Predict the 3D structure of the following.
Amino acid sequence: MRALEQQALTGPEGLRLVDVAVPVAGAGEVLVRVGAAGVNFADVMQSRGTYDGGPRAPYIAGFEAAGEVVALGEGVTTAAVGQHVIGTGAGAFAEYVVVPAVGLVPLPDGWNDEQTLGLTLNWATALISLRPLGQLKAGNTVLIHAAAGGVGQAAVRIAKHYGATVIATASAAKHDVVRRLGADHVIDYRTADLTDEVLRLAGGVDVVLESVGGTTFRQSIEVARRVTGKVVVIGAAAGEATVSNWELNFKHPVHVIGQHLTTTIQQAPDIFAAALEELHQLIAKGVYPPGEPTVYDLADGPKALAELEARATVGKLALKP
Ligand SMILES: NC(=O)c1ccc[n+]([C@@H]2O[C@H](COP(=O)([O-])OP(=O)(O)OC[C@H]3O[C@@H](n4cnc5c(N)ncnc54)[C@H](OP(=O)(O)O)[C@@H]3O)[C@@H](O)[C@H]2O)c1
């Protein structure tokens, strides 16, 4: 089969199209013929070796796939051959991928593989971060970073649906997209002073969806409301950042909450299951519409990852094997 192999941790240009054997599903696993693979910021981080616990080169890249189940490993009773599913498994940038049966989700009625990408990664991440962890309520104000991105777009729709005022950040060229999703204010964090602007607009925010890190992390802490404000940390696209116990005690008494989906699925499966149920309700209500990813050929995977890294993309990206 054709697959994209990360041959060195040099970033997207370290990816090469190769021919490898179709993998075999082991106990508790299924083999999926990939209809569409999701591209995530974590793929970029893995390609540079900056994703904590990420694979060592060489490895078949990608970890999100939607497609048809073509073989069941020993003991699998929760999936059927011929069924279309979405799941996460290492090596998704390929014609076939092996995925653990636990965590596989059938496609919503009437949706195809491509449209379903993001369900278990982007949407579940946004929902879990904003609701059970961020405790977002109607009337709250929320700051959503990278609001035009895969997770960000889902977060804007969810926050608006639950009655929040949304302040979003995005590169200037993406502002129209974010406004169309319902965001009340969009800030170009590269030209405006984010802290001043958010405090001017709202006097502080109840929840921050913090996916950027670097110098932005400090601004997120500064704008969270004292005592009750929550900063839910889900990413570090711009690098590592710290806040001290002294600052949390005296200067910025706010809640800092970490969220990593793989850990949530493993350590708090009830939270993940509840999120999936809620997402299906949001689908039924039309709050969560079928996805419209930008689709690249598998061979153009390096280009897709390079564009994602360069902040040149809007919304979800997909690779078609
Ligand atoms: N914790 C979890 O379980 C979990 C799960 C999924 C995703 N995530 C995290 O959520 C974030 C979004 O992921 P995604 O896959 O949906 O990607 P994405 O938002 O589609 O793409 C990343 C966006 O982040 C913005 N950005 C800001 N600073 C950046 C920088 N220094 N380098 C690159 N991009 C920067 C850019 O948007 P602008 O140009 O508009 O600034 C860029 O388009 C990532 O940090 C990812 O690691 C976490």
Notes: The mean pLDDT is 97. The first strand starts at residue 2 and ends at 6. The chain has two domains: 2-117+291-320, 121-262. The chain has eleven helices and 16 strands.
